Amino acid sequence: MKSILLFIAVSAITIAVSGQQDDKSKRPSPPAKVSETTKDGVTITIDYSQPSVKGRTIGKDLEPLPGKVWRTGANEATVFEVSKDVKVEGHALPAGKYGLFTIADGKDWTIILNKTWKQWGAFTYKEADDALRFKVKSEKASDFAEMMKFDIDKKGEVTLRWGNEKVDFKVK
Question: Which residues contact 71 (CB under 8 A, 6 or more apart)?
């Protein structure tokens, strides 16, 4: 009888926990999505999870760590999608979905668009699958961003705000 009760208790807990995991809005780093159609008619969408600083130091206690590939968000890899063939910072990129990763090295940031967009974090990231890599400079943000955030404007400028950092790149 005790084993039956134990089985029921464990089953109830497992069901409750798995139900909470299905609701991504309950995660410590909740999901976010931003989408904009540019003046050129290109729809740019970024689907990501928003980590929070919570008193930690970015680059020491919190990603991005200097010189390391970062999923540029939390949980699943950030997904960058364009509806048409575009140029990103002058480099050709076919329409489609990409994993968006970054490498921060001081004020120099490498933006990576990887063909494998459906993956957890950067744990299975493979450089061989990169569709595009380019460098941009970060600058000090005007306001501290407690939660990481992406913005896209009508001109195709994508902006990442995270802590005191602001990183921009252009999509045309």
Answer: 63, 77, 78, 99, 101, 121, 122, 125
- Residue 21 within a domain: no
- Determine, yes or no, domain membership for 64: yes
Residue 153: domain span:
28-170
Q: Specify the pTM.
A: 0.84
Counted domains in the chain = 1
pLDDT by residue, tens only, the chain of 172 residues: 554 443 444 444 444 444 445 787 787 679 999 999 999 999 999 999 999 999 999 999 899 999 999 999 999 999 999 999 999 999 999 999 999 999 999 999 999 999 999 998 778 899 999 999 999 999 999 999 999 999 999 999 999 999 999 999 999 9
Q: What are phi and psi of 125, to 5 degrees?
A: -55, 135
